[in-house]
Amino acid sequence: MKKSLLGALAATLLGAASAAGTLAGAAPAQAIAQPVPGVPTQHLAVGRAGSVGFAGTVALDDCSGSLIRLPNSQPTDPALVMTNGHCLESGMPDPGQVIVNQPSSRSFTLLDDSGNGIGTLTASTVVYATMTNTDVTLYQLPNSYADIQQQYGINPLTLSADHPVAGSPIEVVSGYWQATYSCSIDGFVYQLDEGSWVWKDSVRYTPQCQTIGGTSGSPVIDTDTGLVVAVNNTGNENGEQCTVDNPCEVDQSGNVTVHQGTNYAEETYEIPACFDPGNQLDLNLPGCTLPQPQ
Fold this sequence. Notes:
There is one protein chain. The chain is mainly β. Helices cover 9% and strands 36% of the residues. The protein has four helices and 19 strands. The chain is globular and about 50 Å long. It starts with 5 loop residues before the first helix and ends in a 13-residue tail after the last strand.
């Protein structure tokens, strides 16, 4: 999972800020400016590397995320922030666990197009979080999209309601590092196993997207449409088979393959079908396939 390098990176990059008790995500602009021992500098593609800027992305204390809207969301609806399930502040959900409508006061640094932090957003609710079949947390804010646009001039990113397409050009946009990774969708994985967790129909990147720790929760944007098609979550770091930080691919026949250095994301097209007007979660809606609480 792309949260795993946090401790080493934060200690290396934040220096005096860490000594002063500052959280890693609180000062991402300083964090990206320094080289990281053991991480090739080309992995830190700082700035606007492709056609997508940082407006609408957020930095968490240990992950990346984005201010998102559904295709039918209205300006007056309560805004949503998306990151990974494994970035949940209360800890990673267990296999099979689904969390809905839990109070939260998680804060996020909102970025402008150039990657500058321009304000702090604070959640009121964990609307949905799981690491079963997918790896996603959705937060609701007390602010509407119109409130945020009026105060900061930032509009949300829009989730696609369609399955992503193999070969599509994408950018993974990390608010934590203010870094972008440009590549294409290489294909889809029937089942991705990592530790005790199992994810279905995951996105596999082409080799150019060498995402690192702290990019967890970054939106994956189809640059042809400008829509969010997935949320970045993991990669095989050491060539191990199905261990934490070393996911393995499992096909429909149960055959297991390992691709060291390959990185992955979880699709997000299923999310819009689980929301009523007003950005209200309803897992019983026809067509909603997200896992439900047991």
